[in-house]
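batch_manifest entry 22 of 60
target: Acyl CoA thioester hydrolase family protein
source organism: Algibacter lectus
requested by: lab member K.T.
priority: normal
notes from requester: please return tokens only, no post-processing; we will run our own comparison against the previous entry in this batch. if the run fails, retry once and flag.
--- input ---
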Amino acid sequence: MFKHPKESQVSITELMLPSHSNFSGKIHGGHILYLMDQIAFACASKHSRHYCVTASVNKVDFLNPIEVGQLVTLKASVNYTGRTSMVIGLRVESENIQTGEVKHCNSSYFTMVAKDENGNNVPVPGLILDTEQGVRRFARSIVRQDQARKRSSRFNSSDFKIEEHIDFVKTQNVQVNL
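--- output ---
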């Protein structure tokens, strides 16, 4: 079975309140991450028709601060499907309701896994790709997964070779006492 990404797209808009802010009046990054996880879950569950859990989050860069009183819109779409997992692309935008100015606050990629009622992984529908953007997003997800695998294995303690890294480390803001 295959589904078009549009069938599972989800968006939410929420007013940012003082209870969501830190001491400087900016919205807590943790609150935004909470909303991002919610919408990733909704999108993945809508696509798979199963309960989904977050397996990983790939790079969250906060590009612009969000102020109390602004509207925050989160948009989610399935970018990639594996056998039981999906990569959900997220975009977060803030809107000043007085001026109408919209700012891109961050984009991120959540890997979600579909589960059955017993907590076992279950297969998910594949994607129907009918745009160049869809193919680009799918291919980018594959490359991102490969890069993550290489990143995590390169610094395994059993494979780590200090002589390959010590000179570089010493050029940083660190004191090495070996």
